[in-house]
Design a protein that fits this description.
heterotrimer, A alpha+beta, B alpha+beta, C alpha+beta, A: Aldehyde Oxidoreductase, domain 3, Aldehyde Oxidoreductase, domain 4, five-stranded mixed beta sheet, 19 helices, 28% helix, globular, B: DNA polymerase, domain 1, 2 domains, 38% helix, CO_DH_flav_C (chain C), CO/xanthine dehydrogenase FAD-binding subunit (chain C), FAD binding (chain C)
Chain lengths: 717, 157, 280
């Protein structure tokens, strides 16, 4: 099949193996002599291990402790503070202390239950407030801040000096669990001469590889990482697989047998990273006509017990704190706070959902104060091409928000309904709109300074087949199909002639992690360039290998030290409308309509993009209304299964009516931008605005539970 | 341990197993099937769905003793059927497959529904798959796929 | 490892009950969840298990004399599709769990599980359901409210089996069921209410209201219902007193799923709705 129109949907290449049940996820691997590892975890939230008593182990059963980590017992992140296995210090309930390894899982469970660990407890810190009030001994540094950022734009001092009023508001958001259907799973297989091969469910094969090089203290050639079919990830398999692969590898090294670790739902839900809870404060200076003069914002993220990748999450939170609005005078501060809870990590949107919710609700509130409709107020500040971003970079490309707003109004009847529901409080109906953007690719100069992506294309002599060598994974988002489409179009050859095996670090170069809405826009672009080069050389009568390196677009300027400049090479945009009806007896929310318009550049496959939108919006609605996760008095989550941590079912939301606007980004493959994360961002604020109108309340937190609505209804009389 | 006999994908099987063992473990570990998957182990997600006497059940909640004398069909068995082909094509056409972990269970939930109601309404489809969680698709494309299979599957169900 | 008994007849099963300390298992949808372990590990049952699913005598489903008889093996789904299922129970079953669970789970299991949030319990309380208990020594019947003693606690004796549920056949013509939960399917109730009433010539002559998940057992207050029926000429006058009765006796708790405050408020809202709007 040849493509003149790359957006036209095709059948996904992995449909058949997934539909028929033949696809092999990690837990489907049947490796002979494979042992299992069971993790023994801390039942203390903070303290020191005084003693560990391990029951007598039968033959061929093993214990793995921090002493068995051959290299550095720290997971390789920006800050290497998170141990694979606790040494003597415990920082959260559920922290991994040791592994028991053997063949019989029931026996392992019994042995694990018999391990006796005595702790010397230290008063633990569970909240941001406690972490900052300096009463208890800090968990990290002297101030409990894993990262602390500040940046300014314009003249915020003068703006506040001139203010007629200053509006201060606080917004807060809770945890969200990725809840991929396939739990974290990893297998390590020992090979010859100390080599370790990892098979597992993951987003970033090279993160895993690099983590193991450091943890085992071994040459790069001795670590091979192979991604298995991955049953959803959503960010949850960005960071944690490095830890899990470490556990499996230490066990495999010690036992010299293949070792598998397959978390069950409870273990996965309770002890793997989630979306950071956030507390966001706006102080906005208004003139006499309620126009914005300047904004001060402060973002605090609950990082949990170890730094992990939280600093990068914070960057995205604070650089997107103004949403789609161009504000002249800004002073932004942000910090990631250490608490004695499970370390938080990546989740689709990566710090942006918290900020987009907060700024959208703040704008709603300012509009009410100004006595104008939310949409009119928002339109006053909506960025246009050439305007400056929050970090004083430039919106280089056309911004199609006016067209998108017109479109969404046309398909949803938003304006008319907004007015009508305003006049009919007795029906408890409401409609809300959100405007949002997502910076595609890594924040700041990450692509050119840290990732330095590389992609390889090969064609063998006398073959018509082309193989893509890239480290980016398909985790459900369709990369197996979209990468092949890009290559097939550039080469003008049939898709069936393109091979793109699941990444194996022994074969593929490091094209970077599968994160940050970068796979299509950044790596897909490398693929297109490589394929175009290969096409030029197609006639050559020898093996051809094309290596394509990342080159930053010339227009991008970034000063990381000051957080100033172009934080992202390009932006994708969205407008969402959500309509709700609230039951006045039970305060339960029913979503009666969802309309979305997106600008993701040129879709590489319209149906795959539609799937990203449908799935992302529903995840966003789950975040908005039903996904509650709270901690008990030991910082241990109370919702540890899919019965108590409730994600949306097929019964929960109305169908989504979606439109794309025509758009093209010059540095993306065939004009494509990132799309995966964007789709989650707008649902929560639109839902919140709708519920707010239905019940005549102002929503300032997520998730919006029926209990919270009741509290607000009582408060507002 | 006891001999437990049942019909699995059309064949008589007898296994020597503890009657409390989960049917899911029997299928995956003793029989080597990969279609039924464990997503939660609590009957909440539907990834382990199989058909028992043509009704949808969560194999993680079926002690194999309860399967004795009954007929079990997994996706491996169902994929031999024409009705599977119809559903599989519709799932592909509608873009209903993302990570694939819920997919075999969804197909079996659709089969159980269409067996009873060959031309379901959207609400009946939503109810029929309400115990099969999907975190990728937001369900609408799956619902569309089932509708599509029903619309074009005249006579099969 | 526990022993599993797989009797073919009720007589055999009762004999096993008499001779061994066993836990009966029918569909398994509660027991397999409560005792589940990760993949490859047997559920952690602490008693020998008595499989009753294949006992035909427990699969009765019939109208007999003035009762509906529902055998212990009748699944929730079978009941959902039975033409004689009382409407108030049907309403609850429709919203209960999800199809795969309803295909295995039984109403008898829902009763024996005795969760305050059990979905079939408010309708069964409102319908004055009776449980039939058999042992080798004989049989007895108990109203459901006497059978369920508290969360997870029932009056079932060690040598007894719950063999069937009997529901008196009524001719109520107004039914209302509402369940508040975190989502619209596969959800555990935060509060639920089941009301069944009979209206004759514009007057309510019979009313039963049961509220779930607001106390250790389902709350049904005959005192309030009687006040209403006795004053059915002028209910407006007694409604404040009726609400007062509920207000005093509904004492919910905070738990993982909701708050006491929410449960109380929603229960009272629903009671107002039921007494003032629903039966108008």
């Amino acid at each position: 099949m040849l493509y003149s129109d790359i957006g036209k949907p095709i059948k996904k290449v992995d449909n058949d193996i997934k539909l028929s049940g033949k696809a092999k996820y990690a837990a489907d691997y049947n490796i002979s002599e494979m042992l299992y590892a069971r993790t023994v975890r801390s039942s203390c939230s903070r303290g020191r291990i005084k003693s560990i008593k391990i029951p007598a182990l039968p033959e061929e059963y093993f214990v793995i402790t921090a002493a068995d980590v051959p290299g550095k017992n720290r997971i390789k992140f920006l800050t290497d503070d998170w141990p694979f296995l606790a040494e003597d210090k415990i920082n959260y309930y559920g922290e991994a202390i040791l592994l028991l390894v053997g063949a019989d899982r029931a026996l392992l469970k019994k042995l694990a239950d018999e391990v006796k660990i005595v702790y010397e407890e230290i008063p633990a810190i569970f909240t941001i407030e406690e972490a900052l009030n300096n009463v208890k001994k800090p968990i990290y540094g002297t101030d409990n801040k894993f990262a602390d950022y500040k940046y300014e734009k314009g003249d915020v001092k003068t703006a506040f000096a001139k203010a007629a009023t200053i509006v201060e508001e606080k917004y807060s958001t809770g945890y969200q669990k990725q809840a991929y259907l396939e739990n974290q799973s990893m297998i390590a297989v020992p090979g010859k001469a100390g080599k370790i091969t990892i098979y597992g469910s993951m987003q970033c094969p090279y993160y895993v590889k690099n983590a193991l090089i450091q943890a085992i203290g071994i040459d790069s050639s001795k670590i091979q990482v192979v991604q298995t079919v991955t049953g959803g990830a959503f960010g949850g398999k960005e960071d944690y697989p490095s830890l899990l692969a470490g556990h499996a590898a230490f066990a495999a090294l010690k036992t010299q047998k293949p070792v598998a670790i397959f978390y069950d739902r409870e273990e996965d839900t309770a002890y793997t990273p989630r979306r950071h809870p956030a507390e966001i404060i706006f102080k906005t200076a208004l003139d006499g006509e309620n126009n914005i003069l300047g904004v001060k914002a402060d973002v605090k993220l609950d990082g949990g017990a170890y730094a992990g990748i939280s600093e990068v999450v914070l960057q995205r939170s604070i650089y997107n704190i103004c949403g789609v609005y161009s504000i002249a005078n800004l002073q932004i501060t942000g910090a990631v706070i250490a608490t004695n809870t499970v370390p938080n990590g990546a989740f689709r949107g990566f710090g942006a959902p918290q900020s987009i919710f907060a700024i959208e609700m703040h704008m709603e509130s300012l509009a009410r104060k100004a006595g104008v409709s939310a949409i009119d107020y928002k339109m006053r500040y909506m960025a246009k091409q050439g305007d400056t971003t929050a970090t004083d970079g430039v919106f280089y490309d056309e911004i199609k928000l006016p067209e998108m707003l017109a479109k969404v109004d046309q398909i949803s009847d938003y304006s008319k309904k907004k007015k009508m529901y305003g006049e009919q409080p007795q029906f408890h109906k409401g409609i809300g709109i959100s405007l949002f953007l997502h910076g595609c690719g890594f924040t700041g100069s990450g692509e050119q300074d840290i990732i330095k992506a590389k992609l390889k294309l090969c064609k063998k002599k006398n073959s018509q087949r082309v193989e893509i060598f890239a480290a980016n994974v398909d985790m459900g988002q369709g990369l197996q199909t979209t990468f092949r489409k890009i290559a097939a179009k550039a080469l003008a050859i049939p898709l069936e002639n393109i091979d793109f095996p699941y990444p194996d670090t022994d074969k593929v170069p490091d094209s970077g992690p599968t994160v940050a809405s970068r796979s299509i826009m950044i790596v897909g672009r490398l693929l297109q360039k490589a394929a175009e080069k290969l096409k030029q050389r197609w006639h050559e009568d020898n093996d051809i290998e094309i290596i394509q390196d990342y080159e930053a677009p010339a227009r991008i300027k970034w000063d990381g030290g000051k957080s100033l400049g172009d934080a992202y090479p390009a932006y994708a945009w969205g407008v969402n409308v959500v309509e709700t009806k609230v039951d006045p007896l039970t305060y339960e929310v029913t979503v009666t309509g969802i309309w979305t318009v997106f600008d993701v550049g040129q879709p590489i496959d319209e149906r795959i993009i539609e799937g990203q939108i449908q799935g992302g919006v529903v995840q966003g609605l789950g975040y908005a209304g039903m996904e509650v996760m709270t901690n008990d008095s030991k910082g241990h989550s109370r919702q540890n299964n899919l019965t108590n941590y409730t994600i949306p079912t097929a019964m929960d939301f109305a169908s989504i009516k979606n439109c794309l606007v025509e758009s093209s980004y010059e540095d993306g493959p065939y004009g494509a931008k990132g799309a995966g994360e964007l789709t989650l961002l707008g649902a929560a604020p639109a839902y919140a605005a709708a519920v707010g109108q239905a019940m005549r309340i102002h929503i300032d937190r997520l998730p919006i539970t029926a209990e919270y609505i009741l509290d607000e209804v009582i408060k507002h009389g | 341990m006891a001999d437990i006999s049942f019909i699995l994908n059309g064949k008589n099987v007898t296994i020597d197993a503890d009657a409390t063992k989960r049917l899911l473990d029997v299928l995956r570990e003793d029989m080597g099937f990969t279609g039924p998957k464990e997503g939660c182990g609590e009957g909440e997600c539907g990834a382990c769905s199989v058909l028992m006497d043509h009704e949808l059940v969560s194999s993680c909640l079926v002690p194999v003793g309860n399967a004795a004398g009954h007929e079990i069909i997994t996706i491996e068995g169902f994929s031999e059927e024409k009705r599977y082909e119809k559903l599989a094509n519709a799932f592909a056409e509608a873009g209903a497959v993302q990570c694939g972990f819920c997919t075999p269970g969804m197909i079996l939930a659709a089969e159980a529904l269409l067996n009873k109601i060959p031309h379901p309404t959207e609400m009946q489809i939503r109810q029929a798959i309400s115990g099969n969680l999907c975190r990728c698709t937001g369900y609408n494309m799956i619902i569309e796929a089932i509708q599509m299979a029903a619309d074009t599957g005249d006579g099969l169900w | 490892m526990v022993k599993s008994f797989m009797p073919k007849t009720l007589a055999e099963a009762l004999k096993i009950c008499d001779e061994h300390d066993v836990c009966p298992i029918a569909g398994g949808t509660d027991l397999m969840v409560r005792n589940h372990q990760s993949a490859g590990i047997l559920p952690t049952f602490t008693k020998d298990m008595l499989f009753i699913k294949n006992i035909d005598e427990l699969t009765v489903l019939e109208k007999k004399d003035m009762h509906l008889i529902i055998g212990a093996n009748i699944t929730l789904n079978r009941l959902l599709n039975w033409e004689n299922t009382p409407q108030i129970l049907h309403l609850a079953l429709q919203e209960m769990a999800a199809p795969a669970i309803r295909n295995m789970g039984t109403i008898a299991g829902n009763i024996c599980n005795a969760s305050p949030a059990g979905d079939t319990l408010p309708p069964l309380y409102a319908l004055d359901a009776i449980v039939c208990l058999k042992s080798i020594a004989g049989e007895r019947e108990l109203p459901i409210r006497e059978f369920i003693l508290g969360p997870g606690k029932t009056a079932l004796k060690e040598n007894e089996l719950l063999t069937a549920i009997k529901i008196p056949i009524g001719d109520n013509n107004i039914n209302f069921y509402k369940k508040a939960a975190m989502r619209k399917a596969a959800a555990i109730s935060k509060v639920s209410i089941a009301m069944t009433a009979k209206k004759e010539k514009d007057k309510i002559v019979n009313i039963a209201i049961a509220i779930g998940a607001v106390g250790p057992t389902v709350v049904r207050l005959a005192e309030a219902e009687d006040m209403f029926i006795k004053n059915n000429e002028n209910t407006g006058k007694v409604l404040p007193d009726i609400y007062d009765v509920y207000d005093r006796q509904i004492k919910p708790i905070d738990d993982i799923r909701s708050t006491a405050k929410y449960r109380k408020q929603v229960a009272m809202n629903l009671l107002h709705y039921v007494y003032e709007k629903c039966i108008k």
